[in-house]
Amino acid sequence: MSKKILIDCDPGIDDALAIALAHGSPEVEVVGLTSVGGNVGLEHTTGNALCLSEFYGMDVPVARGADRPLLRAPREASDVHGPNGLGNVLLPAAAGKPLDRHAVEFIIDTLAASPGEISLTAVGPLTNIALALRKEPRITQWAKELVIMGGSYTRGNNTPAAEFNIAADPEAAAAVFSAPWQPVMVGLDLTLQARATAAVRSRFAGLGRFERELLSPCLDFYGEAVQYREGDGPPIHDACAVAYVIDPGLITTVTARVDVETHGRFTSGMTVTDFTGDSGPHNTLVATGLRHEAFWDLLTDAYTRVADPLG
Question: Coiled-coil regions in this chain (predicted)?
Answer without folding.
Answer: none
